Amino acid sequence: MISGYPRALTMIAAVGAGLSAGVFFAFSTFVMKALGRLPDTDGISAMQAINKAAPTPAFMARPLWHRRGLCRPRRVGGHPAKPTASGLAAGRLRLVSRRIVLTAALPLPRNDALARVNPTSAGAATKWSEYLTGWTAWNHLRTVSCLGSAVIFTVALRVG
Predict the structure, then answer these.
(1) CA 72 → CA 81, 104, 141, distances in Å?
(2) What is the pTM of this model?
(3) Cβ-based neighbour number of residue 138 at 10 Å
(4) For 98, which of 13, 127, 142, 151 is 20 to 30 Å away at the CA?
């Protein structure tokens, strides 16, 4: 079983992944639905404001905490502590799915494109409808990947 510092880091990572899954789930299931029910100009403006407010230093650094804690050996009692295979798998799943594939490669370009939309312009309603559908689908995948990481971290605590 994992003990000491690696156990604490794995617990923090499990909770963080679970919290992320919850936030993504909430966004997919009711925030985006609520924005979609607003008049198009209001929905676009609200999402543009959310996208401007989201990339705070704490929000952007969170995945790095998981990676640093689980992918680099730590010293425990003067000896290097080796991360478990499941801990490494969860950390990598979290980093790749959350940061590289399911955020940087997919939703961020959509967010950038939406930032360039004038909410009152011709065609804004069509762009908004396409954004809502595509962004929400990818956000469902982020939810599942974070939940998967939380499960793997939890299993690592039990069997590692």
Answers:
(1) 9, 24, 27
(2) 0.69
(3) 18
(4) 127
Residue with tokens 């974070």: 146
**Total length of the chain:** 160
113-129, pLDDT tens digit by residue? 999 999 999 999 999 99
Q: What is the DSSP string of the chain?
A: ---HHHHHHHHHHHHHHHHHHHHHHHIIIIIHHHHHHS-HHHHHHHHHHHHHHS--HHHHHHHHHHHHHHHS-EEETTEEEPPPHHHHHHHHHHIIIIIIIIIIITHHHHHHHHHT--TTSTTHHHHHHHHHHHHHHHHHHHHHHHHHHHHHHHHHHHH-
